[in-house]
Amino acid sequence: MNAPKANYRAGSDVLESWRDDVLSGNPPVIWPIGSGALANVEIGPGRVLLIGGAPGSGKTAFIMQGIIDALRITSSLRVVVCNIEMSTGVLLDRQLSRLAGVDLTAIIRRKLTEKHADRIDQAMNTLQSVADRMAFVGGPFDLENVAATVDDFGASLIVLDYIQRIAPPGKHDSRRGSVDATMNYLRQFADAGMGVVVVSAVSRAKDDKGRSSYTGSGLNLASFRESSELEFGADDAFIIHPADDDAEGDAVTLKHLKSRHGQCRDIALTFDRPHQSFTPTGDDPSRRQQSGLKADLQKMWNRTAAAGEDDDEQ
Predict the structure, then answer these.
(1) Where in the sequence is the domain holding 63, given as residue range(s)?
(2) pLDDT tens digits along 107-118
(3) In a domain, 33, yes or no
């Protein structure tokens, strides 16, 4: 039997190329998905981004918002989307709602009127401007078809939504083994220079009272369903997590659970469900000032009311 051929690079060779790269002044390529806090969500060549969340948490809405906006920002970007749950029309309905600011229900039911016309027209033009750089995978929803589509379309970014339902080549004894194999292939795609975005289902976790749920503080890296290979293979991992109970409206936190290239930074977001839109909440000093003033006024009112009650008793 022939001995395996050694495959290595001498440290001196590695150091020389690494030093040239560090001193080149050329930062890694990143395809922004938005501004402000959303700039902390980094997708780019050679990177695998993993995002999870409970059913109905807005995983697909967030990813599609990011992809459409990335296409708008980076004119050279080409994306292949493999979504096994929603038709292309449904995905576009949601983006039309977001871009036009028109309630999704009106779009789904095709109840648009003249008052929507200008906004719908502008949103349609926006989608048209990126349409030729985006492709949607048709069946079969397996990794071989995804890879063939990427090659044919010349894509630089792959979106898989969601990974537990996209089969890898070959036969596997379990769902866990299948997901392991898929993630291993995706890691190879990334190592070859592709950008990869992976959407994953998550498992319920125990809340503070020992109940099984998707809320509370229990969702973490181990919550990604089926496989530890997901958390190992990802460069960045996020989970869309319900905000604290006292948060207003549809407040959520994009919990940054892993960052291979930097520091984890959670992102506070507001999810506008009627328009399928995520907006960074931020830390607005004016809102803090108004909240503080409102609290002070409430305290003054309470003191005045209490004094009035005392007067009545006298």
Answers:
(1) 27-302
(2) 999 999 999 999
(3) yes
pLDDT tens, position by position, 194-211: 999 999 988 876 666 665
Query: Is residue 21 included in any domain, yes or no?
Result: no
Domain-embedded: residue 7? no
Cα separation, 125 vs 165, whole angstroms: 33
pLDDT tier at 291 (50, 70, 90 boundaries)? very low
Q: How confident is the model at residue 15 (pLDDT cuts 50, 70, 90)?
A: very high
CATH number for the domain spanning 258: value is: 3.40.50.300
Give me the pLDDT at residue 287, please: 44
Token readout for 17 is: 């190329």
Provide the pairing of β-strand 157-161 with 134-136: unpaired
Separation of alpha carbons 132 and 242, rounded Å: 35
pLDDT of 309: 47
**Closest by CA position to 51, among listed 297, 275, 234:** 234
DSSP string, the chain: -PPPPP----HHHHHHHHHHHHHT--PPP-----SGGGGGS---TT-EEEEEE-TTSSHHHHHHHHHHHHHHH-TT--EEEEESSS-HHHHHHHHHHHHHT--HHHHHTT---GGGHHHHHHHHHHHHHHHTTEEEPPSS-BHHHHHHHHHHHT-SEEEEE-GGGSBPSS--SSHHHHHHHHHHHHHHHHHTT-EEEEEEEB--EE-TTS-EES-TT--SGGGBSS-HHHHHH-SEEEEEEE--TT--TTEEEEEEEEESSS----EEEEEEGGGTEEEE----HHHHHHHHHHHHHHHHHHHHHHHHHHHHH-
Report if residue 19 sits inside a domain.
Answer: no
Closest to 160 in 3D by CA, of 206, 198, 215:
198
